[in-house]
Specification:
This protein is an alpha+beta fold and 186 residues long. It has a single domain, classed as Alpha-D-Glucose-1,6-Bisphosphate, Chain A, domain 4, CATH 3.30.530.20. It is built from 4 helices and 7 strands; from the N terminus they run H-E-H-H-E-E-E-E-E-E-H. Strands 1-7-6-5-4-3-2 form a 7-stranded antiparallel beta sheet, with helices on one face. Strand 3 and strand 4 form a beta hairpin. It is elongated and about 80 Å long. The N and C termini lie far apart (95 Å).
């Protein structure tokens, strides 16, 4: 006799129910995130400007794809852009936005995710002069779209992205320190 509630039906039905619940929870989670890192850097705003207002400067202190880079727009400042098409990281771009020389640089990043969804990040690097140099604050916020799986990813983005941003600021500090040491005496 056929038993419609046999072990296979219970396992498959239970698994389907768990998957449906996980997708529903993921869909209800926000797809947005925010992250921030800061560091005191012994440099002047002028010494950091070239690392902040051009895509080539960003390439020196942040992680980038290894292939498929295409440069467009002005060399520096508002509208300077670099795009990529990378097997591992997909399609994306970084565009420099508003630059307040010596004070802040805004930028945006767009990455094409799974299913063609566009993930957007807006960032701001702020420089505040201090007696020892600069307080550099790097803030990002992003939108991963309305994908139920991205809702779970957004939960971990603050911690993960803040850690990566802190690593980037460490590299920026090293670059600034090295450029000060190698500058000819004035």
């Amino acid at each position: 006799m056929y038993d419609p509630f046999g072990p296979g039906t219970i396992v498959l039905g239970g698994g389907s129910l768990l998957l449906a619940i996980a997708l529903l929870v993921g869909f209800l989670l926000p797809g947005t995130w925010e992250a921030q890192a800061s560091m005191a850097i012994q440099a002047t705003p002028l010494e950091l400007q070239s690392y902040l207002d051009s895509p080539e400067g960003w390439q020196e202190w942040t992680a980038w794809p290894d292939s498929g880079l295409v440069r467009s727009g002005p060399e520096r400042g508002t509208g300077a852009k670099i795009s990529w098409s990378d097997d591992e990281l997909g399609l994306g771009s970084l565009t420099i936005g508003v630059v307040l020389e010596g004070r802040s640089v805004e930028y945006s990043v767009e990455v094409e995710g799974a299913g063609g969804a566009i993930m957007r990040t807006h960032g701001l690097v702020t420089l505040t002069p201090t007696a020892q140099g600069l307080d550099v604050v790097w803030h990002e916020d992003g939108d991963l779209g309305r994908n139920p799986l991205m809702g779970f990813w957004a939960l971990s983005m603050e911690r993960a992205q803040s850690t990566e941003m802190a690593k980037g600021l460490d590299r920026l500090d090293s670059l600034a320190t090295d450029s000060v040491r190698s500058a000819p005496p004035g």
